Amino acid sequence: MNAPLAAGGTPRRAVRREQLSDEVAARLRLDIVTGVLRPGTFIRLDETAAALGVSITPVREALRTLRGEGMVQLEPHRGHVVMPLSRTDVEDIFWLQATIARELAASAVAHISDAGIDELERLNDELAAAVARQAVDEIAATEFAFHRAFNRSTGRIKLAWFLLHVARYLPGQVYATDPQWGTSAVQNHRTLIAALRGRDVDTVVEVAAGEFGDGARRLISRLTESGVWR
Q1: Is the pLDDT assigned to residue 67 strictly greater than 50?
Q2: Residue 141 and residue 126: Cα distance in Å, rounded?
Q3: What's the CATH code, domain 87-226?
Q4: Concatenated DSSP letters for 76-101?
């Protein structure tokens, strides 16, 4: 029997496998970026599959993705090994995000509607409530939704798409566990929203890019304390 088709004609089984592969890649990428998986560590297919509760296939596909990103390297007869992630690598990742964010922020001032600003305010209120409850998953999801709404309001869909893909290296779950970061994010969003209502381009650009600068400092501090660069 053939696998049922999802919208667009793709077999549902293939879609699910692709989703699993993406989820595994996201988990491994997070562990590499945050120093949980240290440089030189071999990622074993069977052990990783068992730990994540999946089959070996999505793990193998996830490692192929990470190999293309330079996060791991395949050593013949030995397996996939985690590649070094330097402080400069981290700075470059966040520099790229901040650079794209500046362009999107300037466009947002010119294109976002009053209704769009109201939606950002609603999402930030949800974020504030999640931070107050220390609901980590909700914090991460709502923060993502806020920035997705903001980026879509710019009308620069391709540029927003590039930022989304670079943002894979930003460990949202790690930031979401930090109450200080959550409080700061809510306040930054309020400043951003007020600047959008006043059509204050300079402040919107400064706040949008500044969030990535803050994210870089926090991640670099975490990695330094963990001894990953020692």
Answers
A1: yes
A2: 10
A3: 1.20.120.530
A4: TTTEEEEPP--HHHHHHHHHHHHHHH
